[in-house]
Design goal:
It contains 3 helices and 4 strands, in the order E-H-E-E-H-E-H. The protein has 169 residues and is of the alpha+beta class. The protein has a domain of 93 residues: Alpha-Beta Plaits (2-Layer Sandwich), CATH 3.30.70.60. It has a 4-stranded antiparallel β-sheet with strand order 2-3-1-4, covered by helices on one side. Strand 2 and strand 3 form a beta hairpin. Helix 1 runs antiparallel to helix 2. It is elongated, with a radius of gyration of 33 Å. The N and C termini lie far apart (107 Å).
Length: 169
Amino acid sequence: MALYESVFIARQDISSTQAEQLADQFTEIITGNGGEVKQREIWGLRNLAYRIKKNRKGHYIMFHIDAPSDAVQEMERNMRINEDVLRYMTIRMDELPEGPSVMMQVRSERPDRGGRRGGPGGGPGGGRFGDGPPRGRRDEERKSDAPSDDAPASKSEDTPTEAKTGGDE
């Protein structure tokens, strides 16, 4: 049998107990078709990144499954039919992770996300606005670009270079 991780999002209108009943329904489908749900996590009502079918929030539920592909296909078919399920995604895995998922860990228990700019263990420079050298003040740059008072003024196009001669009219 193959290992899978499946996450689905249920509508915000249903209660938490109804979301759990939905998870029970999908668990029964897996076990009825010769599979086993190794782990089930209910992540709760969370904000969606964008609106899905006029919903801004959804109940997130995750399964770790050890089942034949037919059982997973039947579960996905039922998810597609059920109007309470907004989205679902099932992926095949080589091995199932041990312990709680990242979503269930307390922030202090999560591993450090080093390699990001500006944070602990951040990238080069560690600054907020890139890794270039520090810039001077903008007024100093503008002063250095402006011509100094000691430099001779160059000819401008407004000054006449040749005397105009009047014509006989």
